Amino acid sequence: MCPVRVANCDTSRLLQHAVVGSASAWPFCMVENDGIAVALRSAMNNTPRGERDLSDMRRDLSRYALASAGTRVLLAEDDPDLRSLLAACLRRAGYVVLPLAGGHESLAMFTAASIGSQPLPDAIVMDIRMPSHSGLELLMALRLAGWHVPVILITGFGDAQVHEKASEYGAFALLDKPLRSEELLAAVARAIAAGATPSDTASLAG
Length: 206
Known about the structure:
Blueprint: E1 5-6, E2 9-10, H1 11-19, H2 33-44, H3 54-66, E3 72-76, H4 80-92, E4 96-100, H5 103-114, E5 123-127, H6 135-144, E6 151-155, H7 160-168, E7 173-176, H8 181-195
Parallel strand pairs: 3-4, 3-5, 5-6, 6-7
Antiparallel strand pairs: 1-2
Helix pairs in contact: 1-5, 1-6, 2-3, 2-5
């Protein structure tokens, strides 16, 4: 399978370089939380949805880094209102959520986790249609890079082809919008339980 190329950026190669420890592979490879927050802020300049306050990002990153195993969820959604609603729903259920505003932020965090400067998530919830890198493109890149973290995709355009691609790329689940909170929470709980089993540990391969 050939690496997916998106916006002149070979995302699978970036992640594969990160897996083998090449911090120069991606300019967002920051070790400290402040550095990652600055990288995420820079990434948001390429996202037309606006930007969160830097102190909020530091807070979210710190809570995510200190969270216990089985509770860390990365949430990538470019719609700020839906992102806030989904994050609040997950947090009420006891998960520690790191909200990401799109493809650039997601790549920044994936790379940070790949080089060990941030913990791996226990589950990833990603919208399919996002600026710069879609959820399907990011999922394919993660699988090519050897990630086994369960990924739940969400979409408002869940036709048969989208479902087929999600299955082909190894999505744990594909949820259609509008989402029901109980549906999302049940999928995340199942994903984390599946990822914690010895045969499918949520970690990087290699």
